[in-house]
Design brief:
Shape of chain B: globular
Strand content of chain A: 15-25%
CATH class of the largest domain in chain A: Alpha Beta
Oligomer: heterodimer
Distance between the termini of chain B: 44 Å
Structural class of chain A: alpha/beta
Number of strands of chain B: 8
CATH superfamily of chain B: Thiamin diphosphate (ThDP)-binding fold, Pyr/PP domains
CATH topology of chain B: Rossmann fold
Strand order of the largest sheet of chain B: 2-1-3-4-8-7
Structural class of chain B: alpha/beta
Largest sheet of chain A: 7 strands, mixed
Number of helices of chain B: 10
CATH architecture of the largest domain in chain A: 3-Layer(aba) Sandwich
CATH class of chain B: Alpha Beta
Order of helices and strands of chain B: HHEHHEHEHEEEEHEHHH
Helix content of chain B: 25-40%
């Protein structure tokens, strides 16, 4: 079989830096700023090789001044530039959140659309490698909760490249969150399902369009980020037991593909939400309520089930961390329970 | 202000403990992380082994910890950084429990919940954080509490030269200067904030020069020398304790190992770390002590033996401590 385009496999980190490089080439208004994104290539490789190609004026190492440089990004965007600002770990958002949620998120609305802020904030999320409470969070729900920010959370290299190019071209602020455990870094174990074939040319993946990773008729798993890879592994295992699982990868939290979720649950009648963020007051609650509001369309065969971090900070010790972050085995067990569960009549 | 022989010997032996602890950890940390028993294709697996996760070691930076902590009592507060072991050891945090915490064990300071960047010892008023610049406001708070309670306690905030560009640095210094609080701000300038040199991150050459902007004295300690640090810190602690308010000190120190273990250090020449070790403050202090007649071969050997025993016992304690039960992960969110 011949393929028209050259296909090669990229890690998610490589796909992201390739996407940024393509946009830097295409549009001279694009530039990147952040801590250690220059010679270091970004702590998680998101800007690997870009300093050598584009120089320090377009790949700028900043001081440890998140409020300063995130705010500077939005200021530069208001002047017509298209900045990509890297927040090294999403957990560091505390020091700059005012610039993000009171300004970057709201200036467009408060100006009735007269001010455009084409900023992409890239940031590393996720745990599972013992980095403890201040370096392991996901927090997409925190950013999604404040109106005015698009929230993009890729699960694999192909999507990451297309979503990044889409993000840079979007005139709205986008928070692009890449999970460290699927970047394919040479120093952290990762889920190989995230490393995929990636076309060399530029392409976009639209926001607000979930991806059906695996079709199935028995149970729907709605998930995102690294959890997609865990769900895919769980689904394979469950197929061996005769359980047919449908896995939905949200890809973007804002905008959220509500229709894809509703369509799948209408088909299967059983929903598991697998989420690495904290359980309460977040994404899994949002998806659950989405279903609850459409019981006129959906006949549930079992109560909605959620797997998420049980409202504790991420603990350091491996045995404790594995207990609180949902694992493949937890997904398998939850799906089995769902099949045995019943709704009240 | 010169240290007494006793204080100097304490600094010397404490530096020996710190150095051996850090260099032991540099090796222990790698256990389980290297091929062949990790995921195929990986050079290193950060989440594997008995001490998983990130590791930031302070070999070379011992003088800052001992020169300051020589003046501190148990009831004085120290807030440290993501690279905390030298501060913790110098402050008197129990080494066995600290090490067990780094191994994620039930006998650790936090029964494994915190890990190496989140060491808490309320009895010695020691805490630290993985967030750059986060140490300063809590130290200001401890100093505020001391003033409100009418105590002569002092608080110390340690941070790096990179963190001096974080908003919290400026807010904390201003408040301390404004309210004349008994706090000492100690900046470790080890030249790099991960990969970024100070000259590429900071608008001025000396952070001590920023003190004037916040109404307090600023002191440059130009050498990685425990006696020099001792002198500057002694004056600052005395000023704080006697109601004279805060001080900012910046020490030129050297980081021998990477920012974190596993760091390829592409940003500094491979020869640099070796050159820095040529100026090692530990043998230098030993030489000074010998010259003063405060240390001879026998005493030196004994000091080294004691340090070695402490460190060895701490690692043995940590290894033989059990892991906590998984369900403990759900405890202690609230009290």
């Amino acid at each position: 079989m011949t393929v028209a385009t050259q296909q090669r496999t990229l890690t998610m980190a490589q796909a992201i830096s390739e996407a940024i490089g393509l946009e830097l080439e295409r549009d001279e208004r694009v530039f990147a700023m952040g801590e250690d994104i220059g010679a270091y290539g970004g702590i998680f490789g998101a800007t690997e090789g870009l300093l050598a190609r584009f120089g320090p004026e377009r790949i700028m190492d900043t001081p440890i001044s998140e409020a300063g440089f995130i705010g500077a990004a939005l200021g530069a965007a208001a002047e017509g530039l298209r900045p990509i600002a890297e927040l090294m770990f999403v957990d560091f958002f505390g020091v700059c959140m005012d610039q993000i949620y009171n300004h970057l998120a709201k200036n467009t609305y408060m100006s009735d659309g007269n001010v455009r802020l084409p900023v992409v904030i890239t940031t590393a999320i996720g745990g599972g490698y013992s980095d403890a409470a201040q370096h392991s969070q996901c927090l997409y729900a925190t950013f999604a909760h404040v109106p005015g920010l698009k929230v993009v959370v890729p699960s694999n290299a192909y999507d990451a490249k297309g979503l990044m190019i889409e993000a840079i071209r979007d005139d709205n602020p986008v928070v692009f969150m890449f999970h460290k455990g699927i970047m394919g870094l040479p120093w952290m174990s990762y889920f190989e399902g995230a490393t995929t074939e990636v076309p060399e040319e530029s392409y976009t993946v639209p926001f607000g369009r979930a991806r059906v990773v695996r079709e199935g008729g028995d149970v729907t798993i709605v998930t995102l980020s690294q959890m997609v890879q865990k769900a895919a592994i769980a689904a394979e295992q469950l197929a061996g037991e005769g359980v047919d699982v449908e896995v939905i990868d949200l890809r973007t939290v804002v905008p959220l593909d509500r229709e894809a979720v509703l369509e799948s649950v209408a088909k299967t009648g059983r929903l598991l939400i697998a989420d690495e963020d904290y359980l309460s007051f977040g994404l899994s609650g949002e998806i659950g309520t989405l279903i609850a509001e459409r019981l006129d369309r959906i006949e549930l065969k079992a109560p909605v089930r959620r797997l998420a971090v049980p409202d504790v900070p991420i603990p350091y010790s491996r045995v404790l961390e594995q207990r609180v972050i949902p694992q493949v085995d937890d997904i398998v067990a939850a799906v089995r329970e769902l099949r045995g569960a019943r709704v009240a009549t | 202000m010169q240290p007494t022989a006793e204080q100097s010997l304490w600094m010397y032996e404490t530096m020996l403990v710190i150095r051996e602890f850090e260099e032991t950890m540099a090796t222990v940390y790698l256990e389980g992380k290297l091929p062949p028993r990790i995921q195929a294709g990986l050079a290193f697996d950060i989440g594997a082994g008995p001490v998983p996760g990130e590791m930031h070691l302070a070999a070379g930076q011992e003088p800052v910890a001992v020169g300051v902590c020589a003046h501190l009592r148990d009831e004085d507060t120290v807030v440290g950084t993501h690279r905390p072991h030298h501060f913790a050891i110098a402050k008197g945090v129990p080494l066995n429990e600290m090490t067990a915490e780094m191994f994620g064990k039930a006998d650790g300071l936090s029964r494994g919940k915190g890990g190496h960047m989140h060491l808490f010892d309320p009895a010695r008023k020691f805490s630290c954080s993985g967030i750059e610049g986060a140490s300063l406001p809590p130290a200001v708070g401890a100093a505020l509490a001391a003033k409100k309670l009418g105590k002569d306690w002092v608080a110390v905030a340690f941070f790096g030269e990179g963190a001096a560009n974080q908003g919290t640095f400026h807010e904390a210094l201003n408040m301390a200067g404004l309210w004349k609080l008994p706090v000492v701000f100690v900046c470790e300038d080890n030249k790099y904030a991960i990969s970024v040199r100070k000259s590429d991150s900071t608008a001025v050459a000396s952070n001590a020069s920023r003190a004037a902007a916040y109404g307090m004295p600023g002191v440059d300690v130009p050498h990685n020398d425990p006696v020099e640090v001792f002198a500057a810190a002694g004056e600052a602690v005395e000023r704080a304790r006697s109601g004279g308010g805060p001080t900012l000190i910046e020490v030129q120190t050297d980081r021998y190992l990477g920012h974190f273990q596993g760091d390829g250090e592409v940003y500094r020449p491979k020869s640099e770390a070796a050159e820095l070790r040529g100026k090692d403050p530990i043998p230098k202090l030993a030489a000074q002590l010998r010259e003063q007649g405060a240390l001879d071969d026998a005493a030196d050997e004994q000091a080294r033996a004691r340090a070695h025993v402490r460190v060895t016992e701490a690692y043995e304690f940590a290894r033989s401590s059990p892991y906590p039960d998984a369900e403990e992960a759900l405890l202690s969110v609230f009290v």
